[in-house]
C-alpha cells in the first residue's frame, strides 16, 4: 500500500469521524454545569502548577528545577482527572512524572549536579528582552482567550462516556479505528527513537581511539613513558599485617607512600611523614616490625611483644627501634586528639 | 466557573516555559522547559475535548505524550554525548556550527 493511499484513507477517516461521533453522542442536552468541587480543585491545583513552573525557571540548581517540574506535572495529572480524562491523568503521572522526570534526574546525576547555570549574559539584555516577550505573550494570549472564549459553555464528556462505556473504552475505540494509522506511526517513532539513542552511545564508543595491546603498554613502561615500571604496591605488603590501614614496606624498611590510600582516614599519608623521616635519617638499621605502627592497636601489640619474647641478638636493634617509634606515634595520636 | 480558566492556566504555563527556554543556559533545564510547554498544550487539548464533548482532543494529547517520550530519549542522548566531548551541558558551549 502506497503512502498516498494511506494518507487519503487517513483523511477520509478523520473527516468521517466528526459526524459519526456527533451522532453517537446523541443527547447533547444543554451545557454541562461545573460544580463547586471542581472549582475548589482548580483553585488549589492551578496555583500549585504555576508555582511549580515558576520555581523551575528560577531555581539555580538543576535538580531543584526538576523537582519543581514534578510538582507541576503532578498537579496537571490531577487536573486531567478532574476534567473527565482519567486515563490521561494516570498516564501523565506514570509516564511523565514516573518515567520522563526520572530519566531527567538520571541524566542530571550523570552530567554532574554542580553544573550550575552561568550567570553571564552572552547576548546583552537577553534576559530583559525575554521577560518582556513573556509578559507580552501572556497578555496577548490571555486577553484573546478571555475575550473569545470567556463565555463558552462546555458540552462535557458525560454523554460520550455514557455511550462508549467509560473514558478508557472510548479512547481505545477511537485509537484502534479512526486513529489506527497514527497509532502505528507512533510505534515506528518509538523504535526509531530507541535505535537513535543506541546509535549515540555506540558511535561514541567507535570513535574512541583503539585500545593499546599489552605488548605496547609494556614497551611504553620500559621506555620511560610511564612513571613506574611495576604496578603500584598493595597495602600491607611485607608488613606484619595485610590490612588496608597498614602501609606497604620497601625492602629497606621504609614506608612506600604509593601504597597508602588517601580515602582511608586512619592512614593519611602525612601522619606517617615523621616515621618516614626518622627511618630515612637512619638511626641504625630499622626492623621490619618497626613500620607496622599507625594505629593504637598496633602500638599495643608491639609494646607487649618485645617484653614477652625477650628478644636477643639480631632482634635487639629492631625492638629498640619499635619502642622509639611507638613512643613518637602515641605522641602524635595525642596531638591529633 | 467556565472551562476558560483551564485555558488561561495553560497559556500562563506555556509562557513560563517559553521564557525559561530563552533565559536558562543549562541544556537539561531548557529541555525541561520544553516539556512544560508540551504539558501546557496538553492541558488545553484536554480542555477543548471537554468543551466540544468529543474524545479526539484527548487522543491528540495522548499522541503528544508519546512523541514527548521519544523526544526526551533522543534529546537526552544528544545532551549526554555533547557532555562527553565537551564536559559541559551549557547551551553556550555547543557552538561548533557557528563559524
Automatic annotation (TrEMBL), chain A:
<feature type="transmembrane region" description="Helical">
    <location>
        <begin position="89"/>
        <end position="108"/>
    </location>
</feature>
<keyword id="KW-1133">Transmembrane helix</keyword>
<feature type="transmembrane region" description="Helical">
    <location>
        <begin position="128"/>
        <end position="146"/>
    </location>
</feature>
<dbReference type="InterPro" id="IPR042106">
    <property type="entry name" value="Nuo/plastoQ_OxRdtase_6_NuoJ"/>
</dbReference>
<feature type="transmembrane region" description="Helical">
    <location>
        <begin position="40"/>
        <end position="59"/>
    </location>
</feature>
<feature type="region of interest" description="Disordered">
    <location>
        <begin position="209"/>
        <end position="235"/>
    </location>
</feature>
<feature type="compositionally biased region" description="Basic and acidic residues">
    <location>
        <begin position="321"/>
        <end position="337"/>
    </location>
</feature>
<feature type="compositionally biased region" description="Low complexity">
    <location>
        <begin position="306"/>
        <end position="319"/>
    </location>
</feature>
<keyword id="KW-0812">Transmembrane</keyword>
<keyword id="KW-0732">Signal</keyword>
<keyword id="KW-0874">Quinone</keyword>
<keyword id="KW-0472">Membrane</keyword>
<feature type="compositionally biased region" description="Basic and acidic residues">
    <location>
        <begin position="209"/>
        <end position="228"/>
    </location>
</feature>
<comment type="function">
    <text>NDH-1 shuttles electrons from NADH, via FMN and iron-sulfur (Fe-S) centers, to quinones in the respiratory chain. Couples the redox reaction to proton translocation (for every two electrons transferred, four hydrogen ions are translocated across the cytoplasmic membrane), and thus conserves the redox energy in a proton gradient.</text>
</comment>
<keyword id="KW-1003">Cell membrane</keyword>
<feature type="transmembrane region" description="Helical">
    <location>
        <begin position="179"/>
        <end position="203"/>
    </location>
</feature>
<dbReference type="InterPro" id="IPR001457">
    <property type="entry name" value="NADH_UbQ/plastoQ_OxRdtase_su6"/>
</dbReference>
<comment type="similarity">
    <text>Belongs to the complex I subunit 6 family.</text>
</comment>
<feature type="transmembrane region" description="Helical">
    <location>
        <begin position="66"/>
        <end position="83"/>
    </location>
</feature>
<protein>
    <recommendedName>
        <fullName>NADH-quinone oxidoreductase subunit J</fullName>
        <ecNumber>7.1.1.-</ecNumber>
    </recommendedName>
</protein>
<keyword id="KW-0520">NAD</keyword>
<dbReference type="Pfam" id="PF00499">
    <property type="entry name" value="Oxidored_q3"/>
</dbReference>
UniProtKB/TrEMBL annotation, chain B:
<keyword id="KW-0813">Transport</keyword>
<keyword id="KW-0874">Quinone</keyword>
<feature type="transmembrane region" description="Helical">
    <location>
        <begin position="28"/>
        <end position="49"/>
    </location>
</feature>
<keyword id="KW-1278">Translocase</keyword>
<keyword id="KW-0812">Transmembrane</keyword>
<dbReference type="InterPro" id="IPR001133">
    <property type="entry name" value="NADH_UbQ_OxRdtase_chain4L/K"/>
</dbReference>
<dbReference type="Pfam" id="PF00420">
    <property type="entry name" value="Oxidored_q2"/>
</dbReference>
<protein>
    <recommendedName>
        <fullName>NADH-quinone oxidoreductase subunit K</fullName>
        <ecNumber>7.1.1.-</ecNumber>
    </recommendedName>
</protein>
<comment type="similarity">
    <text>Belongs to the complex I subunit 4L family.</text>
</comment>
<feature type="transmembrane region" description="Helical">
    <location>
        <begin position="61"/>
        <end position="83"/>
    </location>
</feature>
<keyword id="KW-1133">Transmembrane helix</keyword>
<keyword id="KW-1003">Cell membrane</keyword>
<keyword id="KW-0472">Membrane</keyword>
<comment type="function">
    <text>NDH-1 shuttles electrons from NADH, via FMN and iron-sulfur (Fe-S) centers, to quinones in the respiratory chain. The immediate electron acceptor for the enzyme in this species is believed to be a menaquinone. Couples the redox reaction to proton translocation (for every two electrons transferred, four hydrogen ions are translocated across the cytoplasmic membrane), and thus conserves the redox energy in a proton gradient.</text>
</comment>
<comment type="subunit">
    <text>NDH-1 is composed of 14 different subunits. Subunits NuoA, H, J, K, L, M, N constitute the membrane sector of the complex.</text>
</comment>
<feature type="transmembrane region" description="Helical">
    <location>
        <begin position="6"/>
        <end position="23"/>
    </location>
</feature>
<dbReference type="InterPro" id="IPR039428">
    <property type="entry name" value="NUOK/Mnh_C1-like"/>
</dbReference>
<keyword id="KW-0520">NAD</keyword>
Amino acid at each position: 500500500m502506497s503512502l498516498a493511499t494511506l494518507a487519503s484513507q487517513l483523511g477520509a477517516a478523520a473527516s468521517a469521524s466528526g459526524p459519526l461521533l456527533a451522532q453517537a453522542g446523541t443527547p447533547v442536552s444543554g451545557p454541562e454545569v461545573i460544580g463547586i468541587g471542581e472549582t475548589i480543585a482548580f483553585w488549589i491545583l492551578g496555583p500549585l502548577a504555576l508555582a511549580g513552573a515558576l520555581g523551575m525557571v528560577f531555581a539555580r540548581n538543576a535538580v531543584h528545577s526538576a523537582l519543581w517540574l514534578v510538582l507541576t506535572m503532578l498537579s496537571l495529572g490531577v487536573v486531567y482527572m478532574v476534567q473527565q480524562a482519567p486515563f490521561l491523568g494516570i498516564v501523565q503521572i506514570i509516564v511523565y512524572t514516573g518515567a520522563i522526570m526520572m530519566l531527567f534526574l538520571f541524566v542530571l546525576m550523570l552530567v554532574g549536579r554542580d553544573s550550575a547555570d552561568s550567570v553571564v549574559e552572552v547576548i546583552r539584555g537577553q534576559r530583559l528582552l525575554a521577560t518582556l516577550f513573556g509578559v507580552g505573550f501572556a497578555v496577548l494570549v490571555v486577553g484573546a482567550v478571555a475575550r473569545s472564549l470567556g463565555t463558552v459553555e462546555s458540552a462535557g464528556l458525560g454523554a460520550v462516556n455514557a455511550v462508549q462505556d467509560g473514558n478508557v473504552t472510548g479512547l481505545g475505540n477511537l485509537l484502534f479505528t479512526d486513529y489506527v494509522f497514527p497509532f502505528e506511526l507512533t510505534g515506528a517513532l518509538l523504535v526509531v527513537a530507541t535505535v537513535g539513542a543506541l546509535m549515540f552511545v555506540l558511535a561514541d564508543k567507535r570513535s574512541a581511539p583503539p585500545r593499546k595491546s599489552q605488548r605496547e603498554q609494556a614497551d611504553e613502561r620500559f621506555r620511560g613513558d610511564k612513571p613506574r615500571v611495576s604496578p603500584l604496591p598493595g597495602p600491607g605488603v611485607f608488613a606484619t599485617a595485610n590490612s588496608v590501614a597498614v602501609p606497604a614496606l620497601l625492602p629497606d624498611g621504609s614506608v612506600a607512600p604509593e601504597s597508602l590510600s588517601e580515602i582511608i582516614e586512619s592512614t593519611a599519608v602525612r601522619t606517617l611523614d615523621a616515621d618516614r623521616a626518622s627511618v630515612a635519617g637512619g638511626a641504625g638499621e630499622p626492623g621490619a616490625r618497626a613500620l607496622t605502627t599507625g594505629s593504637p592497636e598496633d602500638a599495643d601489640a608491639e609494646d607487649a611483644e618485645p617484653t614477652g619474647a625477650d628478644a636477643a641478638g639480631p632482634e635487639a636493634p629492631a625492638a629498640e627501634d619499635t619502642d622509639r617509634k611507638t613512643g613518637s606515634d602515641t605522641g602524635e595520636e595525642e596531638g591529633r586528639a | 466557573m467556565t472551562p476558560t480558566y483551564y485555558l488561561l492556566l495553560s497559556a500562563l504555563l506555556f509562557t513560563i516555559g517559553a521564557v525559561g527556554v530563552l533565559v536558562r543556559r543549562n541544556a537539561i533545564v531548557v529541555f525541561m522547559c520544553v516539556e512544560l510547554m508540551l504539558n501546557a498544550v496538553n492541558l488545553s487539548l484536554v480542555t477543548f475535548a471537554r468543551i466540544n464533548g468529543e474524545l479526539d482532543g484527548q487522543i491528540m494529547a495522548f499522541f503528544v505524550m508519546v512523541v514527548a517520550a521519544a523526544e526526551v530519549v533522543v534529546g537526552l542522548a544528544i545532551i549526554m554525548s555533547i557532555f562527553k566531548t565537551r564536559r559541559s551541558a551549557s547551551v553556550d558551549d555547543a557552538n561548533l556550527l557557528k563559524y
